[in-house]
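BUG-715 | component: ligand-complex export | severity: low

The export step for 1-deoxynojirimycin jobs runs without errors, but we want the raw record kept on the ticket for reference. Input record follows.
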Amino acid sequence: MDNIMNSPAYKAAREKAQELLKKLTLTEKIGQLSQFGNSIYSSEEKIYEDHFREGKVGSFLTLRGAEKTNKIQSDLLEMQRTPIPAIFADDVIHGYRTTFPTPIAQSCSWDPELTERCDAAAAKEAYAAGLKWTFGPMVDIARDPRWGRIMEGFGEDTYLCSQFAAAAVRGFQDNGKTPLLACMKHYAAYGACVGGRDYNTADVSLETLHEVYLPPFKAGIDAGAATVMSAFNDVNGVPATANHYLLTDVLRGQFGFKGFVVSDAGAVGELIAHGFAADPKDAVCKAFSAGVDMIMAGDMFNDNIPALLEEGKLKMEDIDRSVLPILTLKYLTGLFEEPYVDPDGEKIFFCEEHLALAREAGTQCAVLLENNGILPLKNVKSIALTGPLTHPCGQAHLLGGWCGIADPSRTVTIEDGLRAAIPDANINVIPGATFVHMDKEDIDAIASDAAGSDVIIAVVGEENGMAGEAGSKADLDLCGSQEDLILALCDTGRPVICLVSAGRPLVLSKIKDKVAALLNIWQPGTEAGNAVADLLTGKVNPSGHLTTTFPYTVGQVPIYYNHPSTGRPASGRWRFESKYMDCPIEPLYPFGYGLSYTSFEYSEISLSSDSIAADGELKVSLTVTNTGDQDGAAVVQLYVRDLVASRVRPVKELKGFKKVFLEKGASTRVVISLPAANLAFVNSDLEWVVEPGQFKLWIADNSADERFEFDFEVT
Ligand code: NOJ
């Protein structure tokens, strides 16, 4: 696949980098491996002047904006002995100023191209602000919604996440035109943190590591990802940031990665707290020798690498090997030719095109979980709007985590969206609901006020700080008294439409059957209110499908659809089987689930053959008909199960999907290809193999749908 890392421009950039490298002093080389945050520049002691003069700075993080980055860049270039522009990096996770839905939400669109478009737009805004590098996409598989960083990734499924990983890389890097270099993170198995507790240990078998956690990284690298970030956690006892097997043997050796690795913030120093390094010098030696090229952030490389070279623990060729890709990428992004950006470029922030995309994305990512027919709203005269997210603070929370660069005051609130969409309705906004405990009298007061309207809309969920980094939670219920509020609203007898905005799957079992409709809007971003109003009024038909399992209770966690087969599956026939005594074995909503205002029928399903060779391909064709009375999009999902194998296989695995838009009454023929190579798994010798044998295949609307089951064989 053509991408910036295998382009002729890359080759030319590398040649220039090789020439420059020959001219650098040791200090300048190590400087290229060192990233600094805000503190170096704003420091009273002006240490930056020394650092700039000596060439001890290669990159900055979280310094942004055309004016600011231009100023820093010009100071740096003027002071350095050998002028080498710095590369400015930041966390552009779901938009820069215009904020798009969070990545977990985006994955629910089942439309990787949507992510490519959102990230391309984000890249343009970030590029205008002087950035050339983002710390994204996060491609950690997350099977545990207690882990707050589940919001930053693309869900629990490896196949789906891999498609989104590649799309995000393409979007950010724009094939080299105005590239925001991508950084695949967090390498690796960060999402496997035990107990869903951030920064915690990950203990995964090598088979699972290779089969479940690593493929999205490989997919991003194949799409040309320029950089990778090493994770905080240890993987089977070796910190990812000092893991030679992961960073060198697998990443460079097996995956052919040619870019550079940056450590996560402070992760090199944390090798000491891990008990894996004795002191800063030892930590630098271990991280660098394992394959970390650039340190985020600070002077640890500047301070310790010279001594490590003198002691013979590191070699100059190791340093050169790390500096080369950094210089290459600086040439490739055009930094040497044009180290500054035109401040006028920032006019692109919140441009109409980006706002329209944010609105579209908001509608494509929401998942309709319940609907008794109340939606789409028709001829509604009066609406009571309540819940903590209707307050002004909702403007920030509806953006989700990692929106530090966004502007919450630009967020379209749910109220504003509804007023614009249904101008004739009387909207009664009822304050008083909070994310924390509320007294019964206050809840009752809200409910009795709400009872005066035809329909109640309750916007509940999480504050944005409750998910994201360090946002782990042990309880997944709606926090505070939100559940009581919803139940009290339901008791009024008025239909309650509950909108859930959160960074993770929440436990919704107590309200599921009480509300008239349940729409998981995630954290939709700048155009939240407009997108939600489009969905509620039926201007856009919901088509999002879950990419993480929604548990019935937190006690089921970790719960994911593609779990290995047990010898005692739950059948309900006797006691001694794999189940819980006190809650269902099934989740509340399965992976792949999502409702629509219309209905779809799958018919005339046929397989191109009932047997394929291990290097062959199966084609599954079907007719999809929109049998309802609204236009809408179906997400056709293809799952397989390998019936007998040399390792226990998952009960079901997603291996293909297609999202199709159909006008009401329309039909189309859909073909999904299943290359036998996609049936490969990692055997006990850590080799990817396609083993011959019998497989089951399902064409389904979600991972629990077994209406259309087929058999085929791999020979
Ligand atoms: C720490 C986070 O783990 C990482 O994802 C982020 O990119 C860096 N901080 C920089 O903000």
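Assignee comment: Attached the raw record above. The first strand starts at residue 34 and ends at 36.
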